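As the next step, I selected for study one protein, both as residues and as discrete backbone shape codes, as given directly below:
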Amino acid sequence: MAQGAPIARRSHVVLPDGPDMTGEVIVAIDVGGTTMKCALVHPHGRMLHTERHPTRPERGADAVTRDIGDIAAALAEKARTDGLTPIAAGIVVPGVVDEANGIAVWSANVGFRNVPLGRLLNERLGVPTTIGHDVRAGGLAEARIGAARLSSHVLFLAIGTGIAATHVMSGRAIVGANGTAGELGHIVVRPGGPRCSCSRHGCLEAVASASAVGRHYSERAGRTATAADVARLARSGDRLACQIWRETVDALADGLATAQSMLDVETMVVGGGLALAGQQLLEPLRAGLHHRLTFHKEPLVVPAALGDAAGCLGAALMARRALETRR
């Protein structure tokens, strides 16, 4: 979304504690449905090199997997050429992830079906490789070094094409018994509402994601619009856009109130494309959440701070923690 208050981007962040490992780097890749964001990250948090590559998932999961391996190997080789030593790799992907076994279980966006990414990349790179969930990694980064770094109980909400969340307690992202914790987008907030990709009706994702905002306006106005268009039109006083924006905020407030009842967090961090609307989204969302809470303590609701670097930084955090555990 181009309009609205911009989210802060940091060119340098500092990872918490740990020994100084000058000259050592972590290979980090955030695999998205459209783009792979890639980096060499110093263990203390400086992104020494970044690059982007198209994912092109239409070629199939095998081709995407080969590309991830090639890109990771090239990053490791660049590190060595620059006099640096790659000590670990962190790869984060969308969908369902078995983090303990390094398996990309399922991803509609990329086509993964039980791909053993951890084993494949460990063999290719020769360094310990950690596989994680993209939103979980982003939430971990925001909780430890980003917008919620002073809080020990954090909910990170990513509102983009879909809606996903991650709960971070004391610097650890909660995975759940089956690796699917954080699917806030699939709680039903409007029974009988729009059909969701999961096949149910009225899920938060089907009502209040960025893609849903654009779709709802397009259907009712009879012309194509994106969420960015709806935000701009709402600011200019367009009646339909204002109505859809209110409906979106109301649904999000219902979802966050449910989350707070279950999780009791200190800080909620709102990221993703829709969050680029800034205070146009956050102010009414805070007010809506305030009116819905009774005896629960109201959390801070803040914008994400790390932008699209969060996934790579989170991947580096996961890889560093796994490395330290092995040591």
